[in-house]
Design brief:
about 100 residues; IHF-like_DNA-bd_dom_sf; DNA-binding; 3-stranded antiparallel beta sheet; alpha+beta; Integration host factor subunit beta; two-stranded antiparallel sheet; 3 helices; Hist_DNA-bd
Length: about 100
Amino acid sequence: MNKSTMMENIYHQLRVQGYKDLSRQDVIMAVGLILDHCAHALAEAERIEIRDFGVFSLHIIAARAGRNPKTGKSVDVPEKRTVHFKPGTAMRVQVNQNNRSF
């Protein structure tokens, strides 16, 4: 699922639940704001916890000495920041219950 498909699914689900006065543009703006806020919070090294979904946190990979595979020369690899996701228990249970063979 990509971002636009997710927004479309949310819009249709809200319509089914009776929120007829919400426009598609309102849903697109709300989802966009949520995702932008999450990205900004992670950039500021904040932890994001969404109950029953999971936790997003920032992991810092320390600088290290690497090796160029072509020349064999030693190179310095700078520190890197990466996003880590740990799914919540409810999500793990739901994913495992819907286990399909691919």
